[in-house]
Amino acid sequence: MNTPNKVPFQFYIQTIGRGQKRRRSLTQAEAKAAMQQILQGKVTDMQLGAFLMLIRVREETPEEAAGFVEALREVFETPVLPFQVDLDWGSYAGKRRVLPWYLLALQVLAQQGYKVCLHGIVGTDTGRLYTQEVVEYLDWPIANSLTHAGELLTQQNLVYVPAETFVPQIKVLMDHRAELGLRSPVHTVARMLNPFNAKVSVHGVFHKGYDDLHQITATLLNSKTQTLAFCGDAGEAEVRPDKQTDIKAAKNNQAWSFLMPKTFENADPTSKEMQLDLLKAVWLGEAENAFGQATILQTLAMVLVGLENLTPERALLKAEQLWQAREKTS
């Protein structure tokens, strides 16, 4: 009998791609073994494309996502730090219409002493504004490895680390979207990497239903991290103030949810504001943007629910206080 690592990759394609009555999803162990072969370069381009798209057509299951995450986490080693990172934040979508206001919420948290690790990639879609470009504009520290990220977090409270510096294969896998024309399961599981095992991990998704996927996957991984997953703007982890947002939470095999209320009435769905100067001007108090500031408060409050075990109502009040008290430094 073959062990999982010795099973030919064709087995996994056959399992998910057979006729309607014979095909099935992969178990968590099978998904982990399949991803291990992919990461080890033991899969042809044709096999990889077929595998990714077969799963894309029916969407990955929580068991498959959990197995993929386990395999990806084996690629890197988490540095031992003299403290626990408070907040993990994956950014893998990019923004298309409005600025990434959530970054200012993270700056507020960093000023309050929370250790924040932001990770992501620069994608291939020229119509999107990716987080690394904004981080560079804001002059945030950017790490070249997890070890470097740990060193930076020892000195300060906020760091961005490109995902390809700790999982070299991930950008290549995600960039297949440009050739295939569709996202793949890698776009889902990248948000779950949580390289420092932070206390709270925040996941933004684009399509309704993927928030449930993230929540159930977190319970399968039996993580001590509290996961907060929700449909955010353009797939980023940013709470839109013009909609009621259902936040799906999980920790230690337990799952629950809470609602962030709608607090903004007049968002223009056709407007587009992507000037980075405005982001900095709002932070410095040199400009006002009602929608942007409402977004900052909603996103900040959502995180405070997880970090400080507050109700959404109390979290919104505290978010307002922290925003008003921020140090308006460039």
Commentary on this structure:
- The structure is a single chain.
- With 330 residues, the chain is of the alpha/beta class.
- The chain folds into two domains: 55 residues, no CATH class; 239 residues, Pyrimidine Nucleoside Phosphorylase, Chain A, domain 2, CATH 3.40.1030.10.
- A seven-stranded mixed beta sheet has the order 3-2-1-4-5-6-7, with helices on both faces.
- Helix 2 packs across helix 4, helix 4 crosses helix 10 and helix 5 packs across helix 12.
- The radius of gyration is 20 Å and the shape is globular.
- The mean pLDDT is 94.
Q: What is this entry, summarized?
A:
The protein is of the alpha/beta class.
> Mean pLDDT, as a whole number?
94
Given this structure, which CATH class of the largest domain is correct? Alpha Beta
CATH topology of the largest domain: Pyrimidine Nucleoside Phosphorylase, Chain A, domain 2
CATH superfamily of the largest domain: Nucleoside phosphorylase/phosphoribosyltransferase catalytic domain
Characteristics:
single chain, 2 domains, seven-stranded mixed β-sheet, 13 helices, globular, Anthranilate_Pribosyl_Tfrase, Glycosyl_Trfase_fam3_N_dom_sf
What's the layout of helices and strands?
Blueprint lengths: L8 H9 L10 H12 L5 H14 L3 H12 L13 E5 L10 H10 L4 E5 L10 H8 L7 H10 L2 E5 L6 H12 L4 H5 L10 E6 L4 H11 L5 E6 L13 E7 L2 E7 L15 H9 L5 H19 L3 H14 L5
Helix pairs in contact: 1-3, 2-4, 4-10, 5-12, 12-13
